[in-house]
Specification:
It comes from Rosa chinensis (China rose). This is Putative Galactose-binding domain-containing protein. Helices cover about 5% and strands about 40% of the residues. It is mainly β. The N and C termini lie far apart (about 40 Å).
Length: about 150
C-alpha cells in the first residue's frame, strides 16, 4: 500500500499491486474472456420465478458507430430481444476518455426465455468494424428479478 494514502478514506482505492491477488480469488480456474463480436454471459440461476419478468441493466461507457444486440439462450433468434440501433460518435475507445458518452438501458427479459440450469445471454456488436476504434466499452451488466 502507498504510505501516502494510509489512514485516509482513499485507502481502498490506492492499493497498488492488487493484481497479485488474482490467484487468491481464482486458485483453480482462470476467468474466460471470449473476444469477438459476440460476448457470452453464462449463468445458472437457482430458480427461475414463473410468472415474472427480469430486468437486464446494461450500461456502456462508450460507443462508436456500434449496434449492440441482446439475445437470451438463442444466438440466432431474429429479431433480437433488444437492439440499440446505431449508436455512438465519440472517440473514447481511442482513449480520449473525456469524450465518452454514457449509455444505459433497462431491458425487460420475460421469464419464459430463462430456464432452470444453464442459460446464456449473448451480446453482439453487429456492425463490423471498419476501424479498430469502432465498438463499445462495457461498464455495467446486471440481471435481476423485477419486484
Amino acid at each position: 500500500m502507498n504510505k501516502l494514502y494510509k489512514g485516509s478514506r482513499l485507502d481502498k482505492f490506492r492499493q497498488y499491486g492488487l493484481w497479485s491477488r488474482y490467484y487468491e480469488h481464482y486458485p483453480n480456474n482462470d476467468l474466460i474472456y471470449l473476444v469477438g463480436t459476440t460476448w457470452r454471459i453464462q449463468f445458472e440461476p437457482n430458480n427461475v420465478v414463473n410468472p415474472g419478468n427480469y430486468t437486464l441493466q446494461l450500461a456502456l461507457a462508450s460507443a462508436t458507430y456500434a449496434e449492440l444486440q441482446v439475445r437470451v439462450n438463442n444466438l440466432n433468434v431474429k429479431p433480437p430481444l433488444f437492439s440499440t440501433g446505431l449508436i455512438g460518435d465519440d472517440n473514447a475507445i481511442a482513449r480520449h476518455g473525456i469524450h465518452g458518452l454514457y449509455w444505459l438501458w433497462s431491458i425487460d427479459v420475460p421469464c419464459t426465455l430463462l430456464r432452470e440450469g444453464s442459460n446464456t445471454i449473448y451480446l453482439t456488436q453487429s456492425r463490423d468494424g471498419n476501424s479498430p476504434f469502432q465498438g463499445v466499452m462495457y461498464d455495467y451488466i446486471r440481471l435481476a428479478k423485477r419486484p
